[in-house]
Design the sequence.
């Protein structure tokens, strides 16, 4: 039996080594992308993408942010959010995200802060400025053009 398990153990060890090498490679790539994002001059046409890169925002957080901003923009525009599009998004209370009334500035800031893991209104407003600069989610951005 041990002779049968020796080749399997050798294959398992080889796969573990490959997995460790891939993990190291991924960490190296993440570091290089972040370094590039910080070292390059931002393209003024893409301030939102630059905001994401410079903060190292992972793709699942980016998708959650896009969902939150899309939902808030739809609500501000007076659209109902069909139940099939309502999903749980990283700590954002469902009633806050999918309410029937347009969100207040405070509700929108809180939803963005929950979704992106931001710790201050200032960070959320920087996000809004970057989104506005890229011409995305105009109804949401207009909410922050109005007096508080």
Sequence:
């Amino acid at each position: 039996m041990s002779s049968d398990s020796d080749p399997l153990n050798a294959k398992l060890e080889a796969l573990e080594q490959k997995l460790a090498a891939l993990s190291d490679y991924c960490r190296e790539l993440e570091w290089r992308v972040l370094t590039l994002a910080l070292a390059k001059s931002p393209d003024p046409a893409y301030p939102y993408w630059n905001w994401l890169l410079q903060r190292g925002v992972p793709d699942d957080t980016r998708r959650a942010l896009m969902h939150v901003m899309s939902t808030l923009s739809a609500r501000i525009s007076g659209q109902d959010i069909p139940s099939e599009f309502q999903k749980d998004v990283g700590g954002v209370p469902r009633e806050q995200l999918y309410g029937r009334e347009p969100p207040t500035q405070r509700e929108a800031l809180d939803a963005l802060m929950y979704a992106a893991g931001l710790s201050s209104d200032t960070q959320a407003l920087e996000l809004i400025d970057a989104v506005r600069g890229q011409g995305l989610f105009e109804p949401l951005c207009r909410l922050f053009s109005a007096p508080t």
Q: What stands out?
A: Residues 47-143 form one domain.
